[in-house]
Amino acid sequence: MKGSVFRKLITAFLGLTLIILLATLGLARWSFEYGFLDYVNALEQGRLEQVSTALAEEYASYGNWRDIPLERLNRILSSRPPDAGGPGGQPPAHGGRKKPRADLRIPDRPGDPERRLRRRGMHERGPPTALLDQDGQLVAGRQDAVLPEHGIRVGVQVEGQTVGAVFGLPRRHFESPQETAFSRQQWLTSLLIGLASLLLALLASWVLARWLLGPLRRMMAAIRTLSGGDFSPRLQTASNDELGRLAADINHLAATLEDNQAARRRWLADISHELRTPVTILSGELEALQDGIRPFNREQLDSLSQEVARLHRLIEDLYQLSLSELGGLHYHFAPLRLDQLLERLAGSLQARAQAGGLTLKLEAEPATVMADTHRMEQLITNLLNNALAYTDTPGRVEMELYRSQGQVILIVEDSPPGVPADECQPLFDPLYRREESRNRRMGGAGLGLAICSNIAHAHRGTITARPSRLGGLCMELRLPEQHEGEQ
Predict the structure, then answer these.
(1) What's the pLDDT tens digit per position in 394-413?
(2) Alpha-carbon distance 454 to 450, whole Å?
């Protein structure tokens, strides 16, 4: 299992899940902390507004900050809305009296150190808060609470005039035990959610990896079977994704290998049959001569010579076919006037056609192709010889050469007998035989059209077969046209 795709997929899925989970939880933690602190600071803003309202009432009662008892100011500054003594969390007001009680008034004696300490001292209870008068001087509270740029400031207004300002410190981190405990609880909850998500991701990754690798395992098993020489396995291709197309390609490969295996067996059987026939005849003739059954004369010598020639042609055709399939035939490409080559070949075969009771007709317009003259002559000669050999007397063999859309097209067709449409293309298979009508009257081995197909492909062309309008077979050769001045 080490290094397997299954483990790599699970590792990749878990790694991706872990990265997303860390990023999500980290952002959630950051958002929680800053959001919670913003909420606390918003509460502090509301508290300072309530403190500002209470201080405005005190200022309206006394008329100035100096006469208000310092303890009362500090108590108002340090008050919290939930814990304040007045209704709705408001600090208790003075009750509307214009003058303070004598026991709460603090005499303003110059040089009194206790008075200065109490007026300017830092009040340690409650959140850090400071009260400044309209001149910016500290009246009560803590000096360190005054942050003009980043602090929380709420003005104290009496009858539309600003008589002072209340300052508070914004919260940057958790301070109270309750806040710390709540933050720790949220962190543990996030950790448990993360672990549960990882376990869920592990389960989902395992299921997903098995689901993804199921088709791959079946493909691997099919490929191992193909490698062992059994080309029968086929895969189901229900999906249209990449795996489905890969399975379809494997099925196509298996079918191709199966066809090639059948063709190879048929090829060996056909070669054995073709070689056995002349060898059997030669062996029989020689045994008859040795046993004295037949006299050794000119007729027997000619019969032996014909069988040897047939065997020689078969071996030569097999050699030529193997060379053409392996690319071993030598080609020397040069511009070739195909119409002139056709006229020369047709002229050389006119006598043979007339002797067989056939009419050979040629219609050709000037056309130039880039071709090897010897191989192109071999191809056309083979087509004409087949047409002359397999056409009943009286009959016709017609050739037509014309140009169309950058191609040179050669049509060679003959009169009956014909070939069914579904059996036309197999004519180019090596050693293909049809026993009904177009049999090998001239002793051919069925390799000529296979060689013609390879020669056509070497010239970047195609050759096809179809039933002829004359009742026989039509061969169509298409080659790229060579324009004047092209190399």
Answers:
(1) 999 999 999 998 999 999 99
(2) 6
351 within 8 A of 305, measured Cβ to Cβ: no
Residue 466: per-residue pLDDT: 92
**Would residue 467 count as lying in a domain?**
yes
Are residues 154 and 258 located together in one domain of the fold? Answer: no
- Beta 407-414 vs 395-404: how paired, if at all? antiparallel
Q: Which residues of 234-244 are buried (b: 16+ CB within 10 A; e: fewer)?
A: ebebeeeeebe
Nearest to 472 by CA among 394, 402, 409: 394
Asked if the structure places residue 486 within a domain, the reply is no
- DSSP single-letter state for residue 121: P
Report d(CA 18, CA 197) in Å as an integer.
Answer: 9
Structure tokens belonging to residue 252: 């196509």
Rounded Cα–Cα distance for residues 383 and 448 (Å) = 8
pLDDT of residue 479: 94
Among 146, 168, 190, the domain-final residue is 168
User: Is the pLDDT assigned to residue 377 strictly greater than 60?
Assistant: yes
* Residue 74 token pair: 């500090």
Rounded Cα gap, residues 418 and 438, in angstroms: 8
What angle do helix axes 338-355 and 373-389 make, rounded to 10 degrees? 30
